[in-house]
Amino acid sequence: MPSACPPTIGDFSVLPVSIPPLPSFPRSAVHYVYVRRNAPKVPTADDSRSLFLTNVPVDSTELHLRGLFAALVGSGRFESAAFEEERKESYQASTTDLQPASLVRQLAHSGNKKRKREEDNAAERAEEEEAARLPSTWTRPLRRSGSTAVVQLADEKSVEQVLKAIAKIHKSKKYPTWGENVADRVPALGSVWLKAHNRLSYPDKEVVQAAVDAFSALFAKKEQEAAEMAKKLRGEADEDGFVTVTRGGRNAPASRNEAEEAKQKMLDRAEKRKSELTDFYRFQLRERQKEEQADLLKRFDDDRKKVWAMREKRGKFVPEA
């Protein structure tokens, strides 16, 4: 019998999950998943209908979580799941990927013109990057111990229902079973998983060559776009009205470092233009804070003088005989 666990720990609701016996460990166990409302540092529109999970089982897949939430609140509530590794890869791709072509087009076409073409170009770029990746050598990933995931549900009401269902589980002691009706829909682990990894580690030469060719073509395309962006920026004056002339003149081909510096400069300018009004109000706020601080210091100095005056007056006081 598992030891009693509190229904909540801090902001987290504790979700007990029954792990069925395996050939390698022929005993059932209870695993605890900690669930709370999703509250990332950078808010998004879907936060109100999302849940943040931590300590998910190491063999977690989207199908496992879908089955778990279906056992809690029924089917049709679960939409998607993003695991920790996937969120990190998505964030790194969005922050480090060099996409100068889109920046050049934004300079050439102000406003929201040709949005459809932009979307088509983005979809085409995604296909090119997918083709440039080498095939995976694992049939399914394993999560690190204590890994996290963000689950997106149908609506905010579903979030409420999940949290209430977790609270009821602690009273009924009927824990949902992990991986129920899922085993036949996901690749097996164990020796079969390792044998598949050994086989996938040696893909066909044609597959590897196609991925290498796609990567080379994509790299050359990015280099060309970076050179075009740096060339365009060389002809633009900075805030002080000066035009930067680099090695080779204004129209010489740009190196990758120069292109990345040009990209960062362009992003900085766009961010500064975007925050000019906000910075203006911040300047007013800072000035007001300085005035309030000066007023406090003045009042403190006046109070201190009053205290010293009272002390001196007390020292000269002579009681009547």
From TrEMBL:
Residues 200-319 form the Ribosomal RNA-processing protein 7 C-terminal domain. GO terms for biological process: ribosomal small subunit assembly; rRNA processing. Residues 11-194 form the Rrp7 RRM-like N-terminal domain. GO terms for cellular component: CURI complex; UTP-C complex. Residues 89-139, 245-269 are annotated as: Disordered. Pfam families: RRM_Rrp7 (PF17799), RRP7 (PF12923). It comes from the Eukaryota. CDD domains: dRRM_Rrp7p, RRP7_Rrp7p. Residues 257-269 have a biased composition (Basic and acidic residues). Belongs to the RRP7 family. This is Ribosomal RNA-processing protein 7-domain-containing protein. It comes from Podospora didyma.
